[in-house]
Each structure stands twice: as structure tokens, then as C-alpha cells.
Amino acid sequence: MDISTQTTDAPPPTPEPDVARLKSNSRGATRPGDRIFLGLSRGSGILLLVVMAAIAVFLTYRASLAISKDHGNFLTTFEWNTNLTPPSFGIAVLAFGTIVSSIIAMALAVPVAVAIALFLTHYAPRKLSGPIAYVIDLLAAVPSIVYGLWGALILVPHMQGLYGWLNDYLGWTGIFSWDGGAPRAMLTVGILLAIMILPIITNVSREVFRQVPRMHEEAALALGATRWEVVRMAVLPFGRSGVISASMLGLGRALGETMAVATVLSPSYDIQASLLDPGGGTFAQNIASKFGEATEQGRDALIASGLVLFVITLLVNGAARAIIARRKEYSGANA
Amino acid sequence: MAKRIDVSGLTAYYGSHKAIEDISMTVEPRSVTAFIGPSGCGKSTFLRTLNRMHEVTPGGRVEGKVLLDDEDLYGTGVDPVSVRREVGMVFQRPNPFPTMSIFENVAAGLRLNGSYKKSELSDIVEKSLKGANLWNEVKDRLNKPGSGLSGGQQQRLCIARAIAVEPKVLLMDEPCSALDPISTLAIEDLIGELKERFTIVIVTHNMQQAARVSDRTAFFNLSAVGQPGRLIEIDDTERIFSNPSVQATEDYISGRFG
Fold this sequence. Notes:
Organism (chain B): Streptomyces cellostaticus
Largest sheet of chain B: 6 strands, mixed
Strand order of the largest sheet of chain A: 1-2
Domain ABC transporter (chain B): 5-247
CATH class of the domain at 5-95 and 167-253 in chain B: Alpha Beta
Strand content of chain B: 25-35%
CATH class of the largest domain in chain A: Mainly Alpha
Strand order of the largest sheet of chain B: 6-7-8-3-9-10
Structural class of chain A: mainly alpha
Strand content of chain A: under 5%
Number of helices of chain A: 12
Number of helices of chain B: 10
CATH superfamily of the largest domain in chain A: MetI-like
GO biological process, one term (chain B): phosphate ion transmembrane transport
Order of helices and strands of chain A: HHHEEHHHHHHHHH
Largest interface: A-B, 25 and 31 residues
Shape of chain B: globular
Number of strands of chain B: 10
CATH architecture of the domain at 5-95 and 167-253 in chain B: 3-Layer(aba) Sandwich
CATH topology of the largest domain in chain A: MetI-like fold
Pfam families (chain B): ABC_tran
Order of helices and strands of chain B: EEEHEEHEHHHHEHEHEEHH
Helix content of chain B: 25-40%
Largest sheet of chain A: 2 strands, antiparallel
Oligomer: heterodimer
CATH topology of the domain at 5-95 and 167-253 in chain B: Rossmann fold
CATH architecture of the largest domain in chain A: Orthogonal Bundle
InterPro entries (chain B): AAA+_ATPase, ABC_transporter-like_ATP-bd, ABC_transporter-like_CS, P-loop_NTPase, PstB-like
């Protein structure tokens, strides 16, 4: 109605069409585009929850079948004999191997990835940072079986020197002692995993560091900060939560990596005190090696181990979220 | 303490583009000098040459001399980092570090310059916050994030951060343009107090502000878009606003510009 009164010079149009148009505008939420988008996004969200719930139900059900028949203690037994009657199997070795190899991978990959990301965003000339970023993207696209083959054929033989050196200087600690066997041990697995998770952590960190507002860097510069001090004062704190998220993506891959570990590790059902002695195993590697020839009962047992991996992953992600949330009011997003 | 700035024949470039040309002026210690002029005339660029922030921009390059008392900021072997510790800067948009508390924001520059005892640090932080007229508003929440303050408080926090390291000169690049009138008044009062300790140079688009806070005013202009900005005249503020010696200044001030 207002619209028609404003245009007094023009011949007065019939009021009905105007009113009708305003009415249809006021019900914006019911436009087909909005309705379709709302449905799609809500549907995707619900689908994700349904899939997660279905996985959890499937794992829990099949796991409970196996665990109820397990003769040993599922959490502490050091063997995996699913064909005995009654069967005896436990995930102690697998949990240890999975966690240790992932810790090694994270300890090696996160500092290097953050350093590469900082170099690309704050030090490298633009001509250089483009190609380097491209190569890192390529690393992420290499299939894990290729990493596994490279690890078994190239990395393992070349680890002899490092193993010997570690044994000479750090052997007294126990965790770096080596008896001269093939280096198909946790340290090699950890190094291979570190190379595999490097690209994802680097890429996400690089994105985060690139988003640091120019004005924060200038604030630090104007206080008389050197380039490294700018990074320490403005860039790293701003990117902290993003780097944690990036590391979680990498950790998720390290915890669940299957083929590369199975190709490199020489597995056994005991825990090696030294990272350089072959043996041990991981959840994913154990499932991959055993699934093909497992009986129905054996498969249920493997699924039970998968459930434990699922729970570990949830716990780690929860912990990471808690760390980020604890300093939420200091987040760079408040800028 | 406060130092004199003596600029002679200063020209600044962005890559091959000449942004300002042949600027010479003297800024007396313990005074406020305001830079006014239309957008794009190079006043901010010139301000940023005074603490060597201009060269941080890719392609940024400077010719000419800037003497701080008798020391040439662009002399061979002069470290831009140490220049910026002598010449502090406050920016257009308040930019406290979002990841730091109020206390840590003020202490940030001190931590760069060396190690202080905890009590020394608290004393300097308190003194700086008092100097920025912010102490009473934040003394009970020094450990809260600086990003929780209002825009005007954030800008005073940035001033406290800049003066905590006891610079000789304080540069302000349109420090009130993102603030409401009451916060602006608070900053202007503060400038009046700070000039007893520091040499202050302020860029402003607000001519009343220049008239209110400054002792000397410099008018910058450019002959056409794409041409380098030049200093048209610098004189006592009273004279610039009542009886400037160049017609262009009078046209700009009286709004007959362009």
C-alpha cells in the first residue's frame, strides 16, 4: 500500500497486485529455494547422526557377541586365538601399538607441518610457496598402499643406520635398544605415518595462518617485533585452535591407517618395550591381516577391537574440543 | 624522552607508483601535529614512513631522510625493529591481540624488549593503563581478554600498549574514525595529556578534531588521481584554520574543495 502512495505522479495502479506481491514477499521462508536448501542441509545433518548411530549399534552388537564368549579378559589379554573353544583374545597389544605409533607420528609430523605452514605463509617468497604447496597437496593424494610399499621396500632397509645410531646413544633408556633385527618396528611405522599425515596438517595449518588478520601482525610489528616475534605474538596464538583441529585430522588418519602399517610392521601379540624391536600391532592392521581367513566368531572379535578404536577416536576428539573450548574467550575469532 | 622529527626530501613508493613526493617538515618534541587532506593524498603513507612501517607493505620503498633528533631512521645499518621501538603507533581500527588478556596486551611490547620482574611488569602495566585513562575501567579484570572491551576502550588499550614501552614519538593513524563521539572525546582528552611526554603525530579526516587537539597542522593534497601526494603547507593550527597562506588549504577547510 505504501508503495502505491509514494508514486503519486504516476497514474494510480490497481492496488490488488501490489498487495499480493507484498504478501508473497513476506513469506520468504516458504520460497521453494529456501525450502529445498533447508531440507537438504537439515537432511544431511540428520543423515550424519543416523550413520554414526548405525555404526555404533552395529559395532556394539557384534562386539557383545564376541566378548560374551571370550575366555580371557578382553582388555588385558596378550593373545588373539579366536578359534579355540572357548576363544581367548584381547586388545592390549593392539591398543598399545596403535597409541604408540600415533604418538610417534604426531610428535614428528606436527612440528614439521606447523613449520612448513609458517614458512609458506610468512617467510617464503610467493613464487616459491605456490609450487611447494602444490607438492604437499600431491603427497596427500598418494594412496596409502603406495606409502606402504615405499615403506617396506625403501624406508625399512634405510632405517638400519638410524636404528644403530639410536641404539648406540640412547639404547640405555630401554625404549631405543635394538638387537639388530629387521627394522619392521613401531618407530618405522611411526615415521611412515608421520609422512602420511604431514600434508593434511600442513594444509589446514597453512589455511589458518593465512587468515591471521593483517592488523594483528602490524600491531606486533609496530611494537618493535621481529619477524619471528610477530609469528609468536600474533600468528601462532591466533592459529592455535586451528592447528589443534588440523592435528586431530592427522591423528584420525594415523589411528586408522591400515595398509601402510600392515605392509611395514612385522606383527606379534606381545608388547615390545623398545620402539626398535619388531612386533606388536595396531587395530586397523590386525583387522586387515585377520579378516580374510577369520571365522564368524573371529570376525565378531575383530569388530570388537574396531569398537575400541572407535571409542579411542571419540575420546581423543572430545579432549581436543575441550582444549579448544577452554580458551574460547581468547579465541582469535573474537577479533 | 620526546624527540624532534626532522624530515627532508622524503619520497615513498608502492612498487613503481610514487605515493608521496618530496616532503620536508619538522615536528617539535612534546607537541601534537595533525595531518589533514583528502583521501589518497598520502598522509597515512607518510605517517607510516616515520616508523618504517611503510616498507612492510610489499613493494614499499622510501627515499629521503627522517631524523629523530640527530639519528637518520633510514641510515645504513639502522634496524627497522629498533626504530619501531622508539616510534610507537596506534592504528585506525583498534587491534588488541585477541588471544591475550588486557594485562598481557599492555605487557606485550615490554616482553619483546627484555625480561622484567613480575612486580616491575605490573607497575608499568598499571602506569600505562592510567596513562591511557583506562585503569579505573579495567583494574578488576586485567586477566580478561582485551577483545571483550568496547571499541573506545580497546583503542585506549592499544594506546596503553604503545606507551608502555616509553617510545619517543607516538603516531596515530585516524585513531577515532571507528569510534563513537564519546569515545572520541576520551581519546582527544588523552592526546592532550600525552603530549606532555611524547611527540605526537595524528592523521585525521575530522577537521574539528585537528583544530581541537593539535598545535600544528599539515595539509596534504594531490594534483590529480594517480599523481603523488604532496605537503601543501604546515603551520600553527590556529593559522591554518583562520588564515592559511595557500588558497587550496582554505578551499579544503571551508569545504569548497574538489
